[in-house]
Design goal:
- It is a single chain.
- It is built from two helices and eleven strands.
- By secondary structure, it is mainly beta.
- Strands 1, 2, 3, 4, 5, 6, 9, 10 and 11 form a nine-stranded mixed beta sheet that branches.
- The longest helix is centred in the C-terminal third of the chain and has 13 residues.
Amino acid sequence: MSNPASGPVNTHGTCIALSYAWQTAGVLLQGAPGTGKSSLALRLIDQSGFGAGSAEPIRGHLVSDDQVLLEDVDGILMATAPPAIAGLLEVRGIGITRVKNTHFPVQLDMVIAHVDAADIERIPAPQVIELAGGSLPLHKIDFSTPSAAAQVRTLVQIKWGLAGLSNS
């Protein structure tokens, strides 16, 4: 992990906290501008959903849009919003709006990168990404597909042990 004395690292992306019962997972969405990070975040915030393995809905809250501060806190990568943009989400075609957000740092559990649907492996091998001095699981989905929000929830459920993979 990174040197705690170095302070937070500002990273391009959108971070969402997904919560179910007592569990919360921090998910960093990454991709080039215009790939749908904010749109996918809005779907995860606006629509509670079940994914593949829960009986109760998984709820989403914004951590930060466009810029995310990442910091190593005792070996755990934490994500928070720069104060100037806390609680703000760009909704393309509407403008910058206030949304449900966390008011505290969230542990970052995975990174999900935008990849065009044609370039996604059907059954990918596990991947990791080095980010702000830490190593996190990396998943790739097409943010524009109708099932993108359910795919994110399913990845979080797999992390929590509420769903499993038959190919692992």
